[in-house]
Every structure is written in C-alpha cells, then in structure tokens.
Write a structure and sequence with these properties.
5 helices, three-stranded antiparallel beta sheet, globular, 11% strand, 3 strands, mainly alpha, Arc Repressor Mutant, subunit A, disordered C terminus
C-alpha cells in the first residue's frame, strides 16, 4: 500500500531524475554518446542542435557526472565528450524509454489507434 509519504518521496525522486535528464536534448545526447566519444561539432551536427544550446546542455550533464569533457592538444583545439561510468546507471532507463517510444510510435501510426481512455486515479471530486 502506498502511503502519502512514500508517494511524496517517489515524486521527489522523479523530479530529481527529470532535473538531470529532462528537457529536449539530454536523452538525445546520451543516446548518441552510447556509441562512442564525439567532438563538439559532431554532437552538434548529429543531434541537430545549436552550439549555444549544446554547450549549455553538456555543461549541465558534466556537472551531474554523466559526461566527461576532454580537451585535445590539437591545433586548433578540439574537445571530445564521452559518457562516464556513472552514466552507465541510465542504460536500462534509456533502453526502456526507447522500447516504449517505439511501441508508442507504432500505436500512433497504426490506422486502428484506440482513442484515449481515462485512467482512474483514485481521486474523487467529492473528497
């Protein structure tokens, strides 16, 4: 049985998770980096994201320990990004989101997509 306290803790954990990986770009960038390190420009092109937004997203991901930034001693200077061992903890989450997304897309693209059915949240207006 869920208590009010356990529900609150769950909501806080979900909020914390969304603060780290939420938004339009972070999951896209994590998915790209699962196939190997990338230079800044490669990430920008592959994700189709502006350099300004990419820089902001990568800084946040680095602060949260998900991405490692390495400045290469080349001329001109290049920067490579890769996933950290800590980001491996998101592997199952990424796989689950990918699976759900594929199923959802298939469902929405089918000609027999069911209409939305409300879910009983257990909340009643008389309370």
């Amino acid at each position: 049985m869920h208590t009010a306290e356990s529900c609150k803790k769950s909501r806080l954990a979900i909020r914390d998770t969304l603060d780290v990986v939420g938004g339009k770009w972070k999951l896209v960038l994590l998915t790209i980096l699962t196939t190997g390190k990338r230079r800044f420009r490669e990430l920008s092109r592959e994700a189709e994201i502006s350099p300004r937004i990419l820089s902001k997203e990568l800084q946040e991901m680095e602060l949260n320990g998900l991405v490692h930034r390495r400045v290469c001693e080349t001329k001109p200077v290049t920067v490579e990004y890769s996933l950290t061992p800590y980001s491996e903890t998101l592997k199952e989450v990424l796989e689950a989101l990918n699976k759900w997304g594929m199923q959802h897309r298939e469902r929405m693209m089918s000609t027999t997509a069911p209409t939305a059915t409300p879910v009983d949240s257990g909340y009643s207006k008389s309370e």
